[in-house]
Amino acid sequence: MSESHTLTCRLCGGRNRIPVTRALQDLSKPTCGRCSGRLLRVAGEPLTDLSNDDLAHPWDRDTLAALRAMPKVDELLSRVMARTVDKVAHFRYLGGAVEVGSDQLPTLWNLHRAAADRLAMPATPLFVVQSPQINAFAVGAGEPFVVLTSATVDLLDDRGVQAVLGHELTHVRLGHALYRTLARLMMSGGLRLLDRFFGIGALLVKPVEVALLRWYQMSELSADRGGLLTIADLDAHVRVEMTLAGGPSRLLTELSSEAFLAQADRAEALRSGDLMLQVTDLLDDSERSHPLPVWRAHHVAKWAQTEGFFRILAGQERRLLEVDP
């Protein structure tokens, strides 16, 4: 990995060499040597030139393409999801959660609107549901919305909450919500219940389940990129992952992003070098709503070091298609 990247100032056209490690400590600091203007868009400016290809992790693209190519998946979606899930999900959260808006939890609504503006997309409906677990998810097929748990709002600061909102909005932007809702229903047993009403048992074949759950994990890597771009702060983003992994609320100020990333690198090195660990990790993933936080932190931190990440923040087109290491 290169230790620095060359970026063109969008204000004056000057060429600047940016040291990666130093820049990631505070992405607002790099300035143009010619005009002294800020090189990177970190103050909440809408990323109007952001493309879905910029966000999508290669593993997400590949596993989703494999899923869509499987027989019966499209039939399952068209027969059940499109006509059923949106109505059921919307009713569930209208009846059992707090709908956020300008007149209801306006601080949270403003964070949501800011995240959507940053990703150059409309703000979805937003709900908060009472739960002691930190979690968030995008729900729905034709008209997705975002749900946060109360613990997420309680334990994370505004930057952390905004990163989570950007993460979920990225799922919506990339068209993940439909497939992720299907995966959540599958993990919870909800599809078995729908089978009683719609007779879809023949469609619930094991290969589809395995492919769907595998993609479900990979899609998190793309959404993490959106979350990081939303706040343009790697340390704050990693702190979200630490809190998810087990950061105690009483000692949150003692958590170290640097130590956590070092732990993530060790975990990834161990997994990459052991086939048995890779297999068991895949099996464990099928029982989790999200992949391991340390794994996610490892991959988003690696992406933050790439030229592609810096070129997005600098408002420049990517010169090469990404090849994931």
Question: How would you sum up this structure, described in words?
Answer:
With 325 residues, this protein is of the alpha+beta class. The protein folds into two domains: 40 residues, SH3 type barrels, CATH 2.30.30; 260 residues, no CATH class. Helix content is 57%, strand content 8%. It contains 15 helices and six strands. The strands form two sheets. A four-stranded mixed beta sheet has the order 3-4-6-5, with helices on both faces. Strands 1-2 form a two-stranded antiparallel sheet. Helix 3 packs antiparallel against helix 10 and helix 12 crosses helix 14.
State the secondary-structure class. Answer: alpha+beta
Shape: globular
Instruction: List low-pLDDT spans.
Output: 275-280, 285-289
Q: How would you spell out the order of helices and strands?
A: EEHHHHEHEEEHHHHHHHHHH
Q: Major sheet: size, sense and barrel closure?
A: 4 strands, mixed
**Neighbour order of strands in the largest sheet:** 3-4-6-5
Number of domains: 2
Cα distance spanning the termini:
10 Å
User: What average pLDDT do the residues reach?
Assistant: 83
Question: How many helical elements?
Answer: 15
The portion of residues assigned to helices is 55-70%
- Radius of gyration of CA atoms, rounded to a whole number: 20 Å
Strand percentage: 5-15%
